[in-house]
Design brief:
This protein is α/β, with parallel strands linked by helices. The protein has nine helices and 13 strands. It has helices at residues 23-30, 46-55, 63-82, 99-108, 121-134, 175-188, 205-211, 218-234, 295-304; strands spanning 12-13, 86-90, 113-118, 143-144, 161-165, 194-200, 243-250, 255-262, 266-270, 275-279, 284-291, 308-314, 320-326. The strands form three sheets. It has an eight-stranded mixed sheet with strand order 1-4-3-2-5-6-13-12, sandwiched between helices. A three-stranded antiparallel sheet has the order 7-8-11. Strand 2 (86-90), helix 4 (99-108) and strand 3 (113-118) form a beta-alpha-beta unit. The chain is globular, with a radius of gyration of 20 Å. 37% of the residues are buried. The structure holds N,N,N-trimethyl-histidine (AVJ). N,N,N-trimethyl-histidine is lined by residues 55, 63, 167-169, 171-172, 212, 219, 288, 290.
Length: 328
C-alpha cells in the first residue's frame, strides 16, 4: 500500500505595502495619453500565460532554454554556496525553472522549502503538486500576490533564504524601476540570504530581433492578446484586424521595444470607462521593453541596490547571466 500522503499545499496571501494602479488607472494614464503605453503584466491572463509558454518552445526564443541550461550547469555550485533552507521565487509561473536547483538540493542533501510567489493560486498549487511528486522531501508553501506591490509583508523567516528572480524579467523594468525593485529585495534580505538574478545580455541584434519576431507568430499573438484583455476587462471593442505586432531592438538603449501598431483608423469604445478613444493609422502602443545588459551594467545595477556580487555564471552560446548576490 502506498502510505505516502502528499501534504496539502496552501497559498498564503502577501498583502500589498504599496499602492499599485488598477488596470483602469493604467489605461487612463497610459492609453489616453500622447505617448501610449501599458505595463507588460497585463499580458498574463490565462490565454496569455499559455502563449508565453508556447513562446518558450519557439526555436528563435532562446532565453528560456539558455537560462535553463545555465541553471543546470550552475545549480550544484549555487546550492553548495547558499545551503538554502528556503527558496523564494518571484514570478514562479509554472515552476519550471526551479527543477535543476531542487535536483541539486537532493544530491547535496539540502532540503529547503520551496516558496513560489505569483498571482495565480491554482497554477502554484498544480505546479507544486507536480514538484512534490518528483521530490518526495519537498514542502511547497506558495505566496500569492503581486511582487511589484511592495515586499514589506513578505514573510522572510528562515536562516538562509535563496531569493530568485529569473527569466530576464528584470529587463521589463526601466533602469530606475529595476534599481528600485532590487533595492526593495535587498532591504528584506538578511546577512545570510542570497539573491539569484537571471538576466539577458546584449548580443547580435539579429538574434534579439528574431527572438521577438518568431516566424510562427506566437509572440505576435501574445502581444495582440493584450487587446482581448482590454476588450474583456474594460468592455472595449478593439478589432484585432486593425492592429499589428511590431517589435524591434533599439541598440542605443540596449532594449527590445514591443508595440501594438494601429494600421487602420479606429474608434475604440471602453464601455466600463464610458469613454472612447480614436486610434489613427501609425499610432503605436508600447506594451513592453525588454532590456539586455552587459555583464558590467548588470553588476553595477546590483551594486547600486546595495548588493555585493558572490558569483556570476555565464552561458555558452548566446550570452545570458545568472548572478548570485548578497548583502556586503
Ligand atoms: C519573461 C518577461 C522576460 O521579456 O523576453 C517574451 C517576455 N515578451 N516575448 C521577455 C516576452 C515577448 C519575456 N520575459
Amino acid at each position: 500500500m502506498d502510505t505516502h500522503v502528499l501534504s496539502e499545499i496552501i497559498c498564503c496571501p502577501v498583502d500589498p505595502t504599496k499602492l499599485v494602479p488598477s488596470l483602469t488607472e493604467d489605461v487612463l494614464s497610459g492609453l489616453f495619453a500622447a505617448n501610449k503605453r501599458l505595463p507588460p503584466k497585463y499580458f498574463y491572463d490565462d490565454h496569455g500565460s499559455e502563449l508565453f509558454d508556447q513562446i518558450c518552445d519557439e526555436p528563435e526564443y532562446y532565453p528560456t532554454r539558455i537560462e535553463d541550461a545555465l541553471l543546470e550547469s550552475s545549480a550544484r555550485d549555487i546550492v553548495a554556496r547558499v545551503k538554502p533552507d528556503r527558496i523564494i521565487e518571484f514570478g514562479s509561473g509554472m515552476s519550471r525553472k526551479i527543477r535543476h536547483l531542487l535536483s541539486a538540493c537532493s544530491e547535496l542533501e539540502y532540503y529547503p522549502t520551496y516558496i513560489p510567489f505569483d498571482v495565480c493560486d491554482e497554477v502554484m498549487i498544480k505546479s507544486g503538486r507536480d514538484l512534490a511528486e518528483k521530490f518526495a522531501w519537498l514542502d511547497v508553501a506558495p505566496l500569492s500576490g503581486d511582487y511589484t506591490a511592495g515586499l514589506g509583508n513578505l514573510p522572510m523567516k528562515g536562516e538562509r533564504n535563496l531569493v530568485m528572480f529569473l527569466g530576464g524579467t528584470i529587463g521589463n523594468f526601466t533602469e530606475e524601476q529595476g534599481v528600485m525593485f532590487l533595492t526593495e529585495i535587498f532591504e528584506v534580505m538578511g546577512p545570510t540570504d542570497r539573491l539569484l538574478l537571471g538576466a539577458d545580455r546584449v548580443k547580435d541584434p539579429n538574434i534579439l530581433h528574431a527572438a521577438y519576431n518568431d516566424v510562427a507568430g506566437v509572440t505576435a499573438a501574445f502581444n495582440l492578446n493584450l487587446l482581448e484583455v482590454l476588450n474583456r476587462e474594460l468592455g472595449a471593442n478593439f478589432d484585432r484586424a486593425n492592429f499589428q505586432h511590431y517589435a524591434f531592438y533599439n541598440p542605443t538603449k540596449n532594449q527590445i521595444e514591443m508595440h501594438i501598431m494601429c494600421m487602420h483608423d479606429q474608434e475604440v469604445r471602453f464601455d466600463v470607462l464610458r469613454r472612447s478613444l480614436r486610434f489613427k493609422e501609425g499610432d503605436a502602443i508600447c506594451t513592453e521593453i525588454s532590456r539586455k545588459f552587459t555583464r558590467k551594467k548588470l553588476e553595477d545595477m546590483l551594486r547600486q541596490a546595495g548588493f555585493k556580487i558572490c558569483a556570476h555564471y555565464e552561458s555558452h552560446g548566446h550570452p545570458f547571466s545568472l548572478v548570485l548576490a548578497a548583502q556586503p
